[in-house]
């Protein structure tokens, strides 16, 4: 190999193995600056990477998104993703996890109720909280990017989907199933009835996000103000309660057989 070729390979190696710059690295012995200041810078870089990752992954998709573009938008050294997350795959999973935990903290599904509250009150609190989680970000680009990525993950899963389902979506599903059992009574023993009710509620709410273009086309654009979100949640709750009554009656009719002449 020529000396020129060896020099190019050494340059390429340094480019991909270089450490993050000072703002991305915690203080070490002999490094100037105070540790607490470095810690804040370190956390700030991590948060910028998470926000930039949401936008880049949403724009380009999981496969086409590049670490270099994410770091460019975050204003971080190209090695920062490896330093903070251990690679693109882990960054993507961490971004989804961070978003879901942020939503859970901001919009709990049990505001004003306890497990012993009447099931109707628990359902209303659940629906209001879930509407806020899915639609409460409004036109904020980072929130929109996160919502888009969660929807895409459920349509075309990546390896991060298992963790998303297990850690974040399964507990929500279990909570709603518990609420529905209190409303359906014995009809909840029929797995088809319980599943139909679960999917109807999740589908009704999520269409307000996934079907936004169709809603705007047929009914006009409407800002997702707190008043509008409240109206959507109340409509879903009322519609759901009526459907639960119907499903309970259907289950009872099936248990006793078809009516006789």
Automatic annotation (TrEMBL):
Keyword annotations of the record: DNA-binding
Keyword Nucleus found: no
Domain called HTH tetR-type: residue spans: 43-103
Coiled-coil regions listed in the entry: none
Recorded superkingdom: Bacteria
Residues in the signal sequence: none
Pfam families: CecR_C, TetR_N
UniProt-listed InterPro entries: DNA-bd_HTH_TetR-type_CS, Homeodomain-like_sf, HTH-type_TetR-like_transc_reg, HTH_TetR, Tet_transcr_reg_TetR-rel_C_sf, Tscrpt_reg_YbiH_C
Chain positions covered by the region annotation Disordered: 1-46
Composition skew (Basic and acidic residues), residue ranges: 1-15, 25-46
DNA-binding segment(s): 66-85
Protein name from the UniProt record: DUF1956 domain-containing protein
Native source species: Nitratidesulfovibrio oxamicus
